[in-house]
Specification:
299 residues, mainly alpha, two-stranded parallel ribbon, globular
Length: 299
């Protein structure tokens, strides 16, 4: 079945690959637009971004020859294009203001999250396909193409991820804003779920805090499989405490124990999910392969 779905052919010329990848990137950007225009409809935004990205990824995978290499480049161009457009919009706003000012709002929390969902659906769906594929029945070039896909899309995503963290924790927080301290565990989390407080912004804040360190934990284990358990426990707590303390000291936000707890939980979940995927691959391959994250293989 996989041999019929994955179109084997000679690998396309690099220039043609990048040209097709640019079209793929535009398609993924178009997947974001309906959600961008439905501000205030939390569930619909998430579901639409997932649905459109899934449709695009399935179509690209079946229709394009050696599609994994092109999709990897397309997902990378998609993220880089989003960053470039955000910077361009910001420069335009600064010029219109006639002076250099603090970061103007062009990319609120919901938009980077929607972009991340669109990217993640393409990335994860192909990763799960690789996870479930028996080694003996895989198409001849599938494994090597997957390695290129994983390497290309992962590297650019980590760059995008760092940029989003800088944006969320520094750029969009103007000094002199509201500051405060909450040391009561689950107080803010409970407020998120109260009917009177369950606003559109609160839902994105809650989901954002949960997912904020998820890639950190996931990719930490991908690149460093063996890490001391004490460090695994402490890393997200220390990083989150430093961020929260800096926000308070610079008068750029609250120091909230619930933010620390949610950040840490997201980190642990990402780390544990990476571990589970390795266990699953070991079982599916009957011990022939322990991971699908070996970046150096099939170069």
């Amino acid at each position: 079945m996989m041999n019929k779905l994955y179109r084997e052919s000679f690998i396309l010329h690099p220039a043609l690959q990048w040209l097709i990848a640019a079209a793929v990137a535009i398609a993924y950007y178009l997947c974001c637009l309906p959600s961008f225009r439905l501000i205030g409809h939390f569930t619909v935004q998430i579901l639409l971004s997932i649905l459109f990205s899934l449709i695009c990824t399935a179509g690209f995978f079946v229709l394009l020859p050696r599609s994994l290499t092109v999709i990897g480049k397309g997902l990378s161009l998609f993220l880089l294009g989003i960053l470039a457009k955000t910077m361009f919009d910001q420069i335009v706003l600064q010029i219109q203001a006639g002076r250099l000012s603090w970061w103007q709002y062009t990319f609120f929390y919901d938009k980077p999250m929607i972009v991340s969902f669109v990217w993640a659906v393409g990335y994860v769906s192909l990763m799960l396909l690789r996870l479930s594929l028996p080694m003996k029945n895989s198409p001849p070039h599938f494994m090597s193409d997957y390695t290129r896909f994983f390497r290309d899309s992962t590297g650019v995503f980590l760059f995008f991820y760092v940029c989003v963290l800088i944006y969320c924790f520094i750029l969009q927080r103007e000094p002199g804003g509201e500051a405060g301290v909450n040391l009561v565990p689950f107080a803010m989390i409970a407020e998120y779920f109260q009917v009177s407080s369950a606003s559109y912004e609160n839902r994105f804040y809650f989901l954002g805090n949960l997912l904020c360190f998820f890639p950190f934990g996931f990719f930490l284990r991908v690149f460093r499989v063996k890490t001391d358990m004490v460090r695994i426990i402490l890393i997200p707590l220390v990083c989150s405490v430093v961020i929260e303390a800096a926000q308070l000291l610079l008068n750029m936000g609250h120091f909230d124990i619930d933010d620390i707890l949610m950040n840490a939980f997201g980190f642990y979940f990402g780390y544990f999910l990476s571990y589970l995927l390795d266990l699953a691959r070991t079982k599916i391959s009957a011990g022939e392969e322990q991971t699908i994250f070996a970046l150096a293989e099939h170069n």
